[in-house]
Amino acid sequence: MPALTDPSGPRRTRARRGEGDRLREEILGAAEAILIETNDEAAVSIRAVASAVGVTPPSIYLHFADRNALLFAVCERHIQQLEQAMERAAATESDPIERIHRRGWAYLEWALSNPEHYRIIMMSRPDATPDRFVDERLVDTAGLMPVVAELTAAMDAGAIRRDDPLEATKVLWMLIHGVASLLISKPMFPFASPEEVYERMFSMVRAGFAIGR
What we know:
By secondary structure, this protein is an all-alpha fold. It has two domains: 20-64, Arc Repressor Mutant, subunit A; 76-209, Orthogonal Bundle (Tetracycline Repressor, domain 2). The protein contains ten helices and no strands. The chain has helices spanning 20-38, 46-53, 57-61, 67-90, 96-113, 115-123, 138-141, 144-156, 165-185, 194-209. The chain is elongated.
């Protein structure tokens, strides 16, 4: 009896010692490419990624517990890019409130440029979220602590009214997350441009922090 052949094409041979990390990177790269090309997390299936890399689906499970773990591993790289973008945006500004203003715009720009990554990281169900992205750790993941420091500096300088800086930062994040999530999920709604929406939101923030309120 002739040997059965795989109609999908040649497959890799078993990885040699030391090649596991390289295969993991290839899996992440393939999943990332599918996510960017389709802009749809549902398209990132274990079978599709395995086919793109040239391995069998069980090979994926040697590196990632399930599809969800793979998706979050892809997005984990991008959340680092978000934090870096926020730092770059604030780097040349000395005024703490303007630094927050620039950080917020960088956050919104990143979310709108990476809508599926943003959905996965910030809008997934709690039971679908890996431990490293649990809510308690989002204080760091969302880049909140620098904002806490900048609000504290502004309050200490008497530039804005005194408040709990951490709680105020959480409210700021809720505001900008609301803007980001609505612009992503309701693209046909007649909102103003993202720039206009953000500037109006931040003008309300400035008014809310004004001394004497």
